[in-house]
Predict the structure.
Amino acid sequence: MTDLTIKLLVQMHYHIRVISKIVSILIVFNLIGCISDAPRDNPLDPANGLMVSGNISRIYTNNPPENAVVFLQPENLTLIVNDDGGYTFSNLKPGVYQLSSTAPGYSADSATFDLQQNTKVNLVLDSLPFFRDIKLTTHHVSRWFPPDDLYSIRYEAAASDGDGDGDINKVWLKIESIAYTDTLQRSSPGSNIFKGEAFTLDLSINSIHQLIGKPFTIYVKDLPGQIVESKDQFLLRIIEDIPQLVSPIGLEVLNSFPINFVWQAIVNISYSYSLKIEIYSISLGLKVDEVNNILSNATTAQFGGPLSTGDYYWILYIIDEFGNSSTSREGSFRIQL
């Protein structure tokens, strides 16, 4: 061989080695790219976290509760639920978890599950019932017969529920100190006002004065069974003063209108109150009219009528700012036109 031939063979061998290295490098990079894009289907692969997701909704609708929060244990993770009610916890290891959710004004819901693959868990929250208003008042009734005065306690609760007032199942009162319980009744069908009344005999006590300073508790339960109790309620006052009627009384005959109702001045009460007159038909046993918002310092009030011929009686109420009341004995009169 000539020197030129030998030189050419050496150069060709060198270039073949370089090309071979380049091809090897390209193959390695290509394999790495393929490995990176390959899906990790093995849930036990520590590089592949699992996921739990789902929706938080209200009990009677798919709408999510406002400001709902989801908790995941034992990871001690917390998420605020999306506007559409969705949530997602990712990068989780296989194992047993507890998921719970709550929102202001709602009962909590929870679920325990064994996470071995991506899982969906939906929770449902029940809006708690609540009280918009509670009234607890005393009523003192003076009467001719029976001669003993009558005392009672009236309790009234306006109860609502975020899932609709129709979701309210029951409202009841409990006086723990005397082991007394009573269920309040709706004031009318479909109403969210619940009322009840208890007299001294119902309460199995000698006097309602024994209950001054004792706590009363009112409870409300919705249809799913969630129960909410009120703060302690207390009697604020028992009105002992009784208005004294002057005229008309003793079945006095009246043959014209207006009627001028007269009573003695009330001088022993230092707190704020107003007066009210109620007029009843004796034959029907029903209230037929009333005169409201009479000033406390008044001793007379006019009633313009009309009333048909017949026998009637009237009662004068003292009513304080809280709704406690005391009534006079009946004053009877006859309309003879």
Remarks:
- The mean pLDDT is 89.
- The two ends are 157 Å apart (CA to CA).
- The longest strand covers residues 129-141.
